[in-house]
Specification:
This is Ring-cleaving dioxygenase. Keywords: Dioxygenase, Oxidoreductase. GO terms for molecular function: dioxygenase activity. The chain has about 325 residues and is an alpha+beta fold. It has 5 helices and 16 strands. The termini are far apart.
Length: about 325
Amino acid sequence: MLKTDGIHHISAMVNDAQRTIDFYTGVLGLRLIKKTVNFDRPEVYHLYFGNVTGDPGTVITFFPWAKQLKGRIGTGQVGVTAYMIPKGSISFWESRLQKYQVSYQSSSRFGETYLELNDPDGLQIELVERAEGERNRWKLSDIPAEYAIKGFAGATLLSKFPHKTAEVLENVLGFTCLGQEGEFLRFKADGKFGNIIDTKLSASVRGLMGAGTVHHIAWRAKDEEQHQKWRELLEQEGYFPTEILDRNYFKALYFHEGGGILFEIATDLPGFTVDEPLSELGNKLMLPTWLEDKREEMVELLPHIEVKSLKGE
């Protein structure tokens, strides 16, 4: 049976590009690893953040567009994105969130303590201590490596039909069901990052796509050969996957699972150093080949953005 190792990346929609950079680099300490455009709407940035090398299971991406309406988190969406922090670091992160005046609260499930917070656009985030996964070698001067976010811990899915979502997680994507606690059903993949998925069983409001919501969640495929096998399997199971698309840094296909959530399957390779060296990731606006002759026009059209140091209170 085919099995994914877990999350490849998560893509969300926000209003303000600079505000998003400030929060995810300045507060959470992630690296801006790619500055490009939405291939389908090139007047909009596509920003990628992750660990030092942008490994699968560490990457959150954003489509920042000032004109889009506010969305509503609900069924048919990823409700919460969870980040993995090292064991013994939760007090550091409580102090850091206080420093930057980010409201948070604590909760627990499946024997783990979570810090719950929202990003500036209202996306729901959790921080949870886990021993697995390598340390993130990309660090800010005020976030030592022993406290830095390592990558995704996982995500919470808000499904219209949780039993249908559970079915695709187990029987198509190859997750193992670990059991139920309260209103959550937990699944696990074999990867080191983004390997724990919770599906909420209780009813929620209907999700509305827009700023402050997740657009899709992508699962890992080892290579293009396995990627093609996923597509064949999805067709056999009646999920109507898209054609395989070249996203430059990975190959992608998309499908809606039975609970209404947009799933993607993305290849681990070629990765984010395919068009710029590791040391320069995120510094330059990278355009697909068919837009390169319009670079000056694109630079004028897109708002100025930069990674900068923040000063907390």
